[in-house]
Amino acid sequence: MLHGHHAQEGIMKKNSLTKLLALTLCAVLALSLFAGCAAKTEETAPADSETTEAAATETTEAATEEAAAEETTEQPAAEEATGLLAEIKAKGKLVVGTEAQYAPYEFKDLDANFAGCDIWLAQQIADSLGVELEVVDMAFDGIIPAVKSGQVDIGIAAFTKTPERAEEIDFSNLYETSAQLLIVKTGDADKYSTKEALAGQKVGAQKGTIQSQLILSALPDSELFELEKYPALALETQNGNIVGFVVDQAVGEALVATSDGKLEVSNFQFTAEEASFGKAAVIAKGNEDFVAAVNEVIDKVVADGSYQAAYDEAVELAASLGL
User: How far is CA 203 from CA 199, 214, 240, in A?
Assistant: First the structure.
């Protein structure tokens, strides 16, 4: 009996060990499965995160590109060049206002072609701009209004640069300086050589010129007498209706040379402070780029001596024509 009991007890212990082993294996298996699932979950989560981040990045980049495209579309195109210089180039010609009765600066030859050193200068400016030259002949005192209104692009007519004119017009750089002469009837050179001698006398000048202003400022006791043209002033002087007229040196010398001995240069002299005049072209205000283009030509022809050569040739031509 004892033996059987021990045998039965042994069998029960054996069964218990078997169950314990089975439970242990199940637990291990369960833990393994749980760990596997956990690992799988951890591996899956970053993949989902990366996908989300990639999608977000693509969306941001797309939005940025779209915004950049909109910004580019909204930016205005660069403005085209405007102003007088652009207009001159667009129409293909430079329109110059002058008075062609002021040799050697501007006059007409025997074929009625415009000539003179100012016309030569105008041609140099037109050539530099790559356009044709058109010259409009008009009364001297109408040139600045024509420039201001746009009737002509530029005025080149031996204009003297003055502060008064600069208030309504822009000047180019100076291209020539000239002394001022008093032209009188032959035999009166010494008679009218002082301001005292000219006091109370009629002294002539072309209307609207710096010479008129010079008479008013330097000869306040004289009476200003104005006419439109210098040949008419020369005739008035020869006839004794005025004692003389004030004019640029080159023009005065030409008028004396063609007067058949009836005119001469007075021994009267203006001081440098009274009459130190320089010649410049006139351009409507607000056209700085055009002024710069004109100045570039003027500076060049003055520096290389070509303007002086053109001036000398114009003096000779005017003399040969009796102007």
Answer: 10, 11, 11
Average pLDDT, the chain: 81
pLDDT band at 323; cut points 50, 70, 90? confident
Rounded distance between C-alpha atoms, residue 40 and residue 135, angstroms: 95
Residue 216: which domain range? 180-265
Q: If you average pLDDT over residues 191-198, what whole number do you get?
A: 97
Q: Is the pLDDT score of 10 beyond 50?
A: no
Position 271 in a domain: no
Residue 78 belongs to some domain of the structure: no
CB 295 within 8 A of CB 170: no
**CA–CA distance, 308 with 301 (Å, rounded to integer):** 8
Domain tally for the chain? 3
- Residue 301: in which H helix or E strand, if any? helix 288-303
Domain contains 1: yes
**DSSP annotation string for 48-111:** HHHHHHHHHHHHHHHHHHHHHHHHHHHSPPPPPP-SHHHHHHHHTEEEEEE-S-BTTTBEE-TT
User: Residue 55's pLDDT is what?
Assistant: 43
- My answer on whether 143 and 118 are in the same domain is yes
In this structure, are residues 116 and 104 in contact, taking their beta carbons and an 8 Å threshold? yes
- Calculate mean pLDDT across residues 285-310: 96
| Together in a domain, 254 and 198 | yes
Give residue 82's pLDDT band: very low, low, confident or very high (50, 70, 90). Answer: low
